[in-house]
Amino acid sequence: MINRFLILLMLCITLLITSCNGSDNNFNADGPRTGGINNDDLCQVSANLKSALSVSNDIDFNEALVESFYRYYTERHVGEGPFHNQELEFLPSFGLGATPDWNQLSRFIAVVAPATAWMEIINDDDCVDRYLPMDTFDDIAQRYFSSLNYEHRDSDYLRLVNDGYIPTGWSFNDFTYYRLNRISKNPDDSFNAGFDGFTFWPADVFYPYSDAIYHMDSMSENMKALLNYAGTETEMTREELVLEIFLRDDYRDILTVNETMEVSFSVSNNPECAFVYMSSQRLPEKLDPF
User: Fold this and answer.
1) Residue 270: what are its φ and ψ, rounded to 5°?
2) Cα–Cα distances in Å, from 103 out to 11, 107, 158, 166, 231?
3) Distance in Å from the first CA to the final CA of the chain
4) With 80 as the cut, is the pLDDT of residue 61 above it?
5) If pLDDT is split at 50, 70 and 90, which confidence band does 229 have?
6) Nearest CA-CA partner of 203 in 231, 178, 174
7) Dist CA 155 CA 153 (whole Å)
8) Which residue, among 286, 264, 246, has the nearest Cα to 70 in the 3D structure?
9) How far apart are the C-alpha atoms of 205 and 238, rounded to whole Å?
10) Quick check: 7 pLDDT over 70?
11) Contact predicate 14/53, CB 8 Å
12) Do residues 241 and 229 make contact, with C-beta atoms less than 8 angstroms apart?
């Protein structure tokens, strides 16, 4: 009963906060966003991962490397830094030398953009809209991708207004944890990597096990498996438990793989980001939230 009351209370607060919004924008640029671990240090996790990849030839695929990738792709910065916890989840599918689909690219830029990248403007209804300047959009795109060729225009996710973008009506609630399953280094110092993705639902609140049995119908299969793995007593967070499972050889037997990804990238010179993406393929493709 208490949990249901808290959920209803949070829903009411959300409706009050978003009631004065001239557009149908449900996208929250300020965060915090679903899943991930907040970190006030903008560069340390990225630096650790780059260091792990700085070997000259063959890469030693080990638990430390799996953990380094996990920590990078669960990291978020509610303040000034990027949202790496959405980076792989919303990375567009595209081939070497190609420009990603415009809808997928614009969605990616919106979700990884730091909260401080968004400005506020007053719309025709005297309400506040979040606004991503066009030059900021370009800076973020060039930070994450090796070669792009696009024209600024509307997409399903962002509406072009003057010299910037306002999100259209959309949101995302699921969260996917990614586990590195293989990696290789190319002669040009780029990398090819494969990942397994494990999706959790919005209702996957980490209850004490004694309470969780009353909420199983609204939980994902992975959340049920995580609770069963944790047992009746645990002081670990969801992220800590997922990492513990990911460091096991039988992680696929405990959690259900919902998607796989093949990604090629080079190491970024930007201290806040680890990678510049060269290609990506996701199976199955992520559905649009419309």
Assistant:
1) -75, 125
2) 29, 6, 8, 14, 42
3) 32
4) yes
5) very high
6) 174
7) 7
8) 246
9) 9
10) no
11) no
12) yes
Instruction: Please say if the pLDDT value at position 158 is more than 90.
Output: yes
pLDDT of residue 174: 87
User: What pLDDT is stored for residue 35 in this prediction?
Assistant: 55
- Token digits of residue 237: 């967070």
Buried b / exposed e across 32-47, counting CB within 10 Å, b at 16+?
Answer: ebbbbbebeebeebbe
Model confidence, pTM: 0.84
Write out the DSSP string of 114-141: -GGG-EEEE-TTS-EEEEEEHHHHHHHH
One-letter identity of residue 191: F
- pLDDT (tens digit per residue) in 194-211: 999 999 998 787 766 667
* Per-residue confidence (pLDDT) for residue 251, from 0 to 100: 98
Question: Alpha-carbon dihedral of residues 21, 24, 28, 29, nearest 10 degrees?
Answer: -80
115 confidence band (pLDDT: 50, 70, 90):
confident
Nearest residue to 176 (alpha-carbon basis) of 75, 287, 258, 290: 258
126-160 burial code (b ≥16 CB/10 A, e <16): eeebbbbeeebbeebbebbbbeeeeeeeebebbbe
Ramachandran sector of residue 78 (left: φ over 0; alpha: ψ -120 to 50; beta: rest): alpha
Band the pLDDT of 79: cuts 50, 70, 90.
low
Phi, psi of 194 (to 5 degrees): -120, 145
- Cβ atoms < 10 Å from Cβ of 182: 11
Q: What is the spatial distance between Cα 170 and Cα 101, in angstroms, rounded to a whole number?
A: 18
Q: Do residues 44 and 274 touch, judged by C-beta distance below 8 A?
A: no
Contact 56, 18 (CB under 8 A): no
